[in-house]
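Contributing new records

If you add data, match the layout below exactly. Sequence lines come first and carry their own label; structure lines follow with theirs. Keep one chain per record. Anything else will be rejected by the validation script.
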Amino acid sequence: MYDYLNDMDFLIALDKSNIKIHYVKLVLLTFDTEKPIKEIQGIATGGSISVNSNSAVRRTLSLSMYASSDTAQVDNLKNDISINKKVSVFVGY
């Protein structure tokens, strides 16, 4: 067994450190039936989420991410992310 896994001070310091990679997966859904169309995966570089129950738009997301080139074609003129799509967001470490 590794000694550092039993060192609580080390594990607490590691948890509080800012050296974490946030992975993001966006699942594009059809607007009416919410069936998955495509996945875009990458690493988050920044962003925020806002939840407001008094607003007509209850959840808003601002996200900056590096997407892998095989899952996202940002130079495509027929962009997959458009006004007629819903997006499901998954974030992990």
